[in-house]
Amino acid sequence: MTLPLLSLNETGVLGLKTLPTGNTLTIHLSRLTQQVTGLHARIAISVDDTELARTVMNAERLEDRVKLANAAYKDLHGDIKKQYSPDFLKIDLAYVCANAWDCWLAASMPKQEAGQETIRLEWLLEPYVLKGGGTILFGAPGGGKSYLGMAMVVSVDNGESRLWETGYVPSLWVNLERSPDSVRWRLAHINKALGLAANRDLLILHARGKRFRDILDLVKATIKQHDIRFVGVDSLSRMGVGSLVKDEPINEAIDMLNGLGVTWLALGHTPTSGEEHVYGGNLWTAGADITAQLTSIRRPTITGLRLETFKSNDTPIGKPLVYALEFGPGLEGLTAIHSSSLKEFPELAMRKKSGLIDDLVTYLKDVTAATATKAAHDLKLHTRPRISEALSTRTDLFVRFGPKTGQGQAYALLAPPELL
């Protein structure tokens, strides 16, 4: 008998076989993962365009394969059953399952690659979003990130902007934070502030109260259906991967964003201990191509925004730029967005430093190492929880010193004091 021919598509491994009746049998394995108990996958069996059975299972378990094959076979029409026995289907399924992982790995094997100097990097939104890359825009809550982030997505979706040089690609805004009415109201005011019609539409996925991980398949389906090339996500705190002060959840979140296969912009909050990094630590910075810090100063009807690129993998880091958000009286909302300068907002001339971080660096220069409890006792101006968060998350400055004791974990400066 002829066994199925294995091939790959975007989601997994296909086993294709022409049956004696001329119909095409398809066995599709997707979401392949190797676990302790064996290869797990979502497996679907179809004939022509009709799906007969589907399940998520251990592909190496005989009982699971037999159950799936029997479920599929009972829905085959009579002509096929006359020339294709249930035992043949079980054999075909077993063959595909046994060889799927090697087929999947073969597509990921390293290849000899030649350098290509003809490749040119392109901005999607200069100087903050690189085409094909990922950007994290971070700042304190209530500082204007959502307005500026949505303005960036609207600008790219429109193909031009008063504020930035942009590309022109279909864009998606993923709203995990606000009510649909609130986002629609903001969109109308952002549109007008950018010189567009208030009712100009933008593709928006409303998922307030949900986690990004839970809607990941929906986001990917939306990208495919609408040919989306740029996604904005509000915000990183709703990724749904667990504690964001641990390394693995941050890596998982970055993998989800990069796995979208398009350019992305994600908004991030800062911790209470300072505004110099995204809440959760340096792995956010390592995972993004560009990170930009937003600091702001609020006046009764205008907010000044200072946007400074902190890290960029492949492009020069330019000087900080200043923007202004103008608001009408009462509940009138945003009326204008425009480029500004430090002359209009001199308070933004110096990037804000966290007094806590500066105090901890100075303190550890003197004492060499200390626990959060000891530092809180000696510094007096800062609480123990804030000190503990700063010591554990600012891995660019502080490092664990010795084993944890009954008094807690001691920390020291990562670099020698003379280099700080």
Describe it for me?
- The protein has 420 residues and is α+β, with helices and mostly antiparallel strands.
- The radius of gyration is 27 Å and the shape is globular.
- The protein has eleven helices and 20 strands.
- The mean pLDDT is 91.
- Strands 11-10-12-13-8-14-15-16-17 form a nine-stranded mixed sheet. It has a five-stranded antiparallel sheet with strand order 1-2-3-4-5, covered by helices on one side. Strands 7-6-9 form a three-stranded antiparallel sheet, covered by helices on one side.
- Helix 4 (145-158) packs across helix 5.
- The protein starts with a strand and ends in a 7-residue tail after the last strand.
Q: Count the strands?
A: 20
First-residue to last-residue Cα separation: 72 Å
Q: Structural class from helices and strands? A: alpha+beta
Largest sheet features:
9 strands, mixed
Return the average pLDDT rounded to an integer: 91
Strand content: 25-35%
Fraction of residues in helices?
Answer: 25-40%
Oligomer: single chain
How many H/I helical runs? 11
Q: What would you report as the Rg, rounded to the nearest angstrom?
A: 27 Å
Catalogue the unreliable spans.
none
Give the overall shape, derived from the CA principal axes: globular
- The main sheet orders its strands as 11-10-12-13-8-14-15-16-17
